Amino acid sequence: MERIAKYESPRYPELGFYVDGSFRRFCGGFFVTESEAEIAVLNELADVVRVEEPEEVAAADKAEKHVKPPASRKSSVK
């Protein structure tokens, strides 16, 4: 099972790099991939940080979020 890897480049939001002769570029400071070749190159770049998002925590956060009903309005007497 391949895992999605998310990387951030806060200093260079449009950072570009080559993988096996193909040019890749960050978009808005982020790059998401499942490719082992891209992950290997990204792990070696100095200005890139891998963003870890544990699946258990992310799934729990999504499950816990619920929409609160709007507060009922009380009429005011003037």
In words, what does this structure look like?
The chain is an alpha+beta fold and 78 residues long. The chain has a domain at 5-55. The chain is built from two helices and five strands; from the N terminus they run ββββαβα. It has helices at 36-44, 55-64; strands spanning 5-8, 16-19, 22-25, 30-33, 49-51. It has a three-stranded antiparallel β-sheet, with helices on one face. The protein has a two-stranded antiparallel sheet with strand order 2-3. A hairpin with a 2-residue loop joins β2 (16-19) and β3. The radius of gyration is 21 Å and the shape is elongated.
What's this entry about, in short?
The chain has 78 residues and is of the alpha+beta class. It contains two helices and five strands; from the N terminus they run E-E-E-E-H-E-H.
Q: What layout of secondary structure does this protein have?
A:
Blueprint: E1 5-8, E2 16-19, E3 22-25, E4 30-33, H1 36-44, E5 49-51, H2 55-64
Antiparallel strand pairs: 1-4, 1-5, 2-3
Task: Please tag this protein with its features.
alpha+beta; 24% strand; two-stranded antiparallel sheet
